[in-house]
Each structure stands twice: as C-alpha cells, then as structure tokens.
Design goal:
The protein has 258 residues and is of the alpha/beta class. The chain contains 13 helices and 4 strands. The chain is 39% helix and 7% strand.
Length: 258
C-alpha cells in the first residue's frame, strides 16, 4: 500500500450532506461530494492488512484494498477496472449497499473504518464523467439465446454478463420500466433513476434487449420461454409481504416493507 501509516495520520471523513434549504426544493440525492484530496486521504487509511476481512464482509468479494490504494495514488482509471472486475453496477451498490465491508474492516476494531462505500461511489461516478465506462460487446456470438425474467439488480447483472459472453439476451419485466427494486423500491434521495437509464444504454449497445410491460405467465406463456430460448433465468423478486409471529409484531408503527 502507498501510505503505510495513513490510518494513523487521517481520521474518517465523510462529505457533508447538501444544505437543507437546497434539498427542500427537490427529491435528489442528499449526500454531498467529496474532493479528490479527501478521497485520496480516505484511501490512504486502508491498512495493508495481512488478512483483509473487508473481502469477507463484501458479498461480491470486491477488491477493496486494491482500489483504495489506486485512489490514494491518483490512478483512477485503474481503480475502475479493479472495481468493475467484481461488480457490474458500483454506482448502485456505492449508494444503497449497507456496507458490511466497513463493519468487517480491521480498522473498525478500535477506530473508525475506512470509507469504502464513499470511495466506491466516487470511483464509478468519476469514471462515467471521464468517459471510461463504455460498452463491451462480445467479439464472437455464441448463437444461443437466453431469456431473463425480472430486471432488478440480479437480472440486469446476469443479462450484462451473458451478453458479454456472446449470447442473445432478452430481459422481460412486468412493470412499465426496467429496474425492479432499483427503480420502484429505492427513493430518489438515495439513488437517482438516471443512473439506471445510463447503464441500460450501455447494455443495449452490448446487445441486451429489454421488454418492459410483459408479465411472464400472463402476457407471455411460460412455454414460450422454453420454446423460443435456449435457456431461461428467473430473477424475480418478492412483491408480497409475509407476516411473522414475532414479539412486538402488534405494536404501533410496525408495517410491512412490501
């Protein structure tokens, strides 16, 4: 790592949220932006752990120490390559993930953890600003077709990976727009929806076909999936609530999430 003593020199620092007076006029994201210098200092806090437990904390196995170090060294284009190596959509996770990686951070044992989520978000935002995020269409086509049912984060990631492998991919979504929980379950103040549309443009250029407003099993018979496609992937979410008999269930203010 570039700054072996960084965790002793710099404290954890997050950007201030946008002023309340400004936020009252819109529904946009409330988190402010960090400067490049701030982000490099935060990246310098990564400890060069013998065992980086942040890898275990992250469900994706993100290469967190690698891109922390690259940000510290101002090597942003390499940082986005390391980030995209394990994560198709860091602009989503960098905003809405609960950051179990930070809970697992070794520095969190007796200090404040590294601002991993903040750095992740700014790597991808900077990469888009610089034009480094481009379509990656396959060099060869497999001749195989895949239907994906559901356009939430699982369906979109699956679609992008399969399209890049050379398959013809069609994503079916019963709602009138693509995105699933990303679009209809997350408010704009946490994640603005133009981020989804931006990724969809990239995926279309990679060969993914989107078909919103199609409910498989109603508008499209299930038999068509096995007849018209070589494979089908079910990435549907849960839109119905499930009651649980737990202590406190009957208290005021307890509501179903769905």
């Amino acid at each position: 790592m570039g700054k072996i003593s960084g965790f002793m020199e710099y404290g954890r620092e997050l950007p201030s949220p946008r002023p309340v007076e400004e936020r009252l006029r819109d529904y946009l994201e409330i988190e402010g932006n960090a400067s490049t210098g701030q982000l490099q200092q935060q990246g310098a806090r990564c400890m060069d752990c013998g065992v980086p437990f942040c890898h275990n904390g992250c469900p994706l196995g993100n290469l967190i120490p690698d891109w922390n170090d690259l940000v510290f060294k101002d090597r942003w284009e390499e940082a986005i390559l390391a980030l995209h190596a394990t994560n198709n959509f860091p602009e989503f996770t960098g905003r809405v993930c609960p950051a179990p990686c930070e809970e697992a951070c070794v520095l969190n044992i007796n200090d404040d953890p590294v601002t991993i989520k903040l750095i992740e978000k700014h790597i991808i935002d900077h990469a888009f600003e610089q034009g480094w995020v481009k379509p990656l269409p396959p060099a060869l086509k497999s001749g195989k077709s895949v239907a994906i049912v559901g356009s939430g984060p699982a369906g979109l990631a699956c679609a992008q990976q399969l399209a890049r492998a050379g398959h013809d991919v069609t994503v079916f979504e019963r709602a009138d727009r693509i995105g699933g929980l990303l679009r209809y379950g997350i408010p704009d103040f946490k994640m603005e929806k133009h981020l989804i549309d931006r990724r969809m443009e990239q995926m279309r250029a990679e060969g993914v076909e989107f078909k919103p407003g199609v409910a498989v099993g109603e508008d499209l018979p299930v038999e068509r999936l096995t007849k018209d496609f070589d494979a089908a992937v079910l990435c549907v979410g849960s839109t119905e609530s499930r009651d649980l008999s737990v202590e406190g269930r009957d208290l005021d203010g307890i509501h179903f999430a769905m």
